[in-house]
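Quick start: what a row looks like.
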Amino acid sequence: MTSLRSLGRSLLHPPTRPVDPHRDPAASTRLLTEVMERPLDPGYAAAARRRAETGTPPTRSARTATVVALLAVGVLFAAAGLRAAAAEPAADRGRTQLAQRIEDGTARADDLATRASTLQADNARLAASLGGAPVASADAAASGLQVAAAATPVTGPGLQVVLDDAATPDGTTGTAATSGRVVDRDVQLVVNGLWAAGAEAVAVNGQRLGALSSIRAAGEAVLVDYRPLTPPYTVSAVGDPTAMQTAFASLVAGRYLQVLRDNYGIRTQVATADRLDLPAARLDLRFARAGAAGK
């Protein structure tokens, strides 16, 4: 430090004494050379050597700086951990929420299944206490409605009426004589007579008749529900055979058959049957829907 201060003074305030003509020129640069070669003050260098040789412990300020540095590193690690926890992927959170929803749904489903089992057991006990009569009555009513609506096939005894065109002079069936041909009106009268005689289900050539059925003519063909039929026309009716046969003969339909036979030669036949199998009607409902009564 003394050399540096001396150098500064000599540079800022150069001496004003006269130049000695006998002075060595190299002496003026000796100080600069010493400063460049030994920049550290000799006193500082000596103190550093003594501290290294004697092993003097670090000062209190050094220990404080070390503790502060360790605390700073710990704070940095804590902040990094918090940031990693906050940056948890959204997919993991979504999976956790979905798993929770599945567990909740499973619990609700188990609860509903338990309640359903309890209600079923209660219904069974009620049916047993009532003897099953209401259930059987409801089933019978439903079956009756299905039969009346022609929505189900039926089997049972009944009556059959057959209509066929009149025979030609040579004994074969022909269509030359219009008056001897069975027309749609003939079939309609027979069907209505059977309903009036107590029929529970009616079919023409295997076509079951329902509430929406129709019997019409298209040229020389007879159509049932818009399906052409060919003679002979067999009208089958399920019901009490004896009662229907007696009632049919006393109605207009029975007398009409007699007129067809006597005046036009149309061949007819009425016979009872022990078993008739009638299919369900082909219903094509486009607008009608089942609904509560009164609504």
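That is the whole record. The beta strands are 154-164, 201-204, 207-208, 215-218, 221-224, 227-229, 233-238, 267-278. The first helix runs from residue 2 to 12.
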